[in-house]
Amino acid sequence: MIGAKTILTNTLFLMGASVFNIGVSIVTTALIARAIGPELYGRYTFGLTYVLIFSAFSNFGIESLFIREASREKGKLALIDDILPLKVVLSVITVGLALGSLYVLDYPPETVEVVRVLCVGLFFQVLYECLMSVTKALEEMHVVALFSVFFRVVSAAAIIASIMSGIGFIGIVSAFAVGNAAAFLVALWVHAQRWGLKRMGFRVDAWVPLIRQGYPFFLSALVTMLYGKINVLMLSKMVPEADMGYFMAAANLVDNLFFIPMAFNTTIFPAFSRMHGASQEALRQSYGKIIRYLVILTLGVSAGTMLVGGEVIRLLYGEQFDSAAPVLSILILYWDLAFFSNVLSSLLFSIHQERAQARIMAVAAGLSIVLNALLIMHSGVVGAAFAAVVTEVAVVALMGAVLWRVDFPWPMSAKSLRLGFNVGAMAVIVQALLPVNLALAILIGAGTYLLLLFPMGLVEEEDKALMYSWIQKRFTRLRPYGVS
């Protein structure tokens, strides 16, 4: 598989950083929830989700376009000199849209104040991610990983300082802005050291073709964000803030697990784009292999989460958040499906099928609105979770159909019974150890599931050799000079 070691190395860099980040995030999330309670927690997490929805307007598909083109032709890295000032303009427009819409939708003043503070962080986040697109195009994911850790540490320090010093809720909300501002300033300094920093110019003639080419990516990102987060907007109008807090407590745990698909997709998008220009057969083989291993990974994570989710909720948030446990068991299935849809989206973008992807996302957004309206009225936050799962099933099915039509068939496998045995073995061990110790049950249960993959023949010989070669290469690099 072309670039297999690069994909593996970059994914592991990003996942390593993300494992650290998720640990920090879990600690800070637990501290926040316990410090401010379900109502304020619901307001805070709604505000974060609200500004995230509007982030698509500042992207306008330009970063995805830039990464795809620059990963194939390094000379196009110079486009960043026109993209960065354009993103400044788009960021200002985005912040204006986010704040203006709050008044149109008649949100209370307390919610408006939270979003106003978070919009400062959104402005800096957009510019920081723009600079990171250069390193993504170069497939230097260790740089992306280090910056993600830096942002998480700075924002966590601001959160902890706010809680310990008595600043309280507004300090917690401001941590998002502090972390993103710090990450942008450091990223700008690094960019200037490596590439130089040209005087910023507003060349509208250069922006027009960028916007025109990036529009399909923008439309896809916008409707993807809408269908993924519309449940939060609808819940904010249909359920009490406490119920919103329960939903967001479960959703945030699932969001923390998105470090795996995010790390993977950050790596494979430029790799898929490069392969599309080099070898269609290599791209097809890579797609098939990736899907097969995704089935193994997502099945293990979802089964494990259903087994221990309730205990994790109580440990992190306290018994006042017990109502979040059923929501978590449903939303983990959404995470499984979203992992697949993210990979399929990356492949569609890489093979210039972004318009088809955008149409699918538009259908999904409409379906999500209808399902949420019906299911939230019937079942509240549990209904919103079910709506997310059903919508994602439709997305994966439609994307798979489009790829099948362009000669990327869904890979078939006859190893479901072996996977079922793995899940059963993990479930037995977790249930036996859960009364003893939660961490022990998670570690040994996950270890059992992973180790059984090898004797059960679920890891191919070619991939075993690849992993062995990768480990051997890294071990050789770590040996002291002159030691044999």
Summed up, what is this model?
The chain has 484 residues and is mainly α. It has 15 helices and no strands. The longest helix has 56 residues.
Structure explained in plain terms:
The protein has 484 residues and is an all-alpha fold. It has two domains: 4-413, no CATH class; 416-469, no CATH class. The chain is globular, with a radius of gyration of 22 Å. Helix content is 85%, strand content 0%.
Percentage of residues in strands:
under 5%
Strand segment tally: 0
Distance between the terminal alpha carbons, to the nearest Å?
Answer: 31 Å
Indicate the radius of gyration in whole angstroms: 22 Å
The chain-level structural class is: mainly alpha
List the helices and strands in order: HHHHHHHHHHHHHHH
Q: Could you report the average pLDDT, rounded to the nearest whole number?
A: 77
The coarse silhouette is globular
Number of domains: 2
Total helices: the number is 15
Provide the low-confidence segments as ranges. Answer: none
Could you give a short account of the major beta sheet? none
Helix proportion range: over 70%
